[in-house]
């Protein structure tokens, strides 16, 4: 493996309308809506072809069961790969940050891939708490989730998947959420799934004296905050599923890419989990 060869391609599978106060930011402005993209990522390390999440379904299904969706010319992930000359059957591994609907569609198109998630997430996805019937497309809605019938390999804790690509647990948004770390020539890229929605979530809310302005969509806010501190500690750059700024570049890393400072202190705010 050579880190120099690793290239990351963001794939925008469509736009979703999200509420600023109930989704994007804790104590965000209630009722205010924004449109944000839903990305998944194709990674080519030179030795392995990897998907991190697989993105949205079609506009009709997304809007009917979930949030208002507009494709705006975006294609689903297998088509995106075909358009760049990669057959979905060539993908070696699909790593899922979690199994919410907007991260798993079309996974069966990657027919030769190892599918990887945590056991905790798999268990919840197949028997969701009623609050999350929609998130996991429970059969009670009269639809079939994309992961039904797929064989997964389970990871628990920190684990290397292939050389230069590893996962670490980041529960909070969902019970078995994990982040993916990809080593690149510019440093460690961390794929945060929905641990944060927007890079702004990593910045402080000074008015409230919070080191991070965390999202409002959590199953567990203590785990969620801890996961954000872990991301902060581990990332040289962050690739977020729902952050529009990722779309400014077709490939990562790129020449002159800004590298973030890990665990930067901000006057008037504090970390909570000082030991990590
Ligand atoms: Zn999502």
Any overview of this molecule?
There is one protein chain. The chain is an alpha/beta fold. It has a single domain, classed as Ribonuclease Z/Hydroxyacylglutathione hydrolase-like (Metallo-beta-lactamase, Chain A, 4-Layer Sandwich). Helices cover 15% and strands 24% of the residues. The chain is built from five helices and twelve strands. It has helices spanning 20-24, 59-65, 77-83, 119-126, 221-234; strands at 7-19, 33-44, 49-52, 69-70, 93-95, 114-118, 152-155, 159-162, 165-169, 178-184, 187-191, 237-239. Strands 4-1-2-3-5-6-7 form a seven-stranded mixed beta sheet. It has a five-stranded mixed beta sheet with strand order 8-9-10-11-12, with helices on one face. The longest helix is centred in the C-terminal third of the chain and has 14 residues, at 221-234. The protein is globular, with a radius of gyration of 18 Å. Zinc ion binds next to loops.
Lay out the secondary structure.
Layout: E1 7-19, H1 20-24, E2 33-44, E3 49-52, H2 59-65, E4 69-70, H3 77-83, E5 93-95, E6 114-118, H4 119-126, E7 152-155, E8 159-162, E9 165-169, E10 178-184, E11 187-191, H5 221-234, E12 237-239
Parallel strand pairs: 3-5, 5-6, 6-7, 11-12
Antiparallel strand pairs: 1-2, 1-4, 2-3, 8-9, 9-10, 10-11
The structure holds zinc ion (ZN).
Percentage of residues in helical conformation: 10-25%
Radius of gyration: 18 Å
How many angstroms does the end-to-end distance come to? 29 Å
Q: Please give the number of β-strands.
A: 12
Query: How would you state the average pLDDT, rounded?
Result: 96
Number of domains: 1
- Strand numbers in spatial order across the main sheet: 4-1-2-3-5-6-7
Any idea what the CATH superfamily is called? Ribonuclease Z/Hydroxyacylglutathione hydrolase-like
Low-pLDDT stretches: none
CATH topology title: Metallo-beta-lactamase, Chain A
Report the biggest beta sheet as strand number plus sense, adding barrel if it closes: 7 strands, mixed
- Principal-axes shape call: globular
- How much of the sequence lies in strands comes to 15-25%
Please name the CATH architecture.
4-Layer Sandwich
- CATH classification, class level: Alpha Beta
- Counting copies of identical and different chains, the oligomeric state is single chain
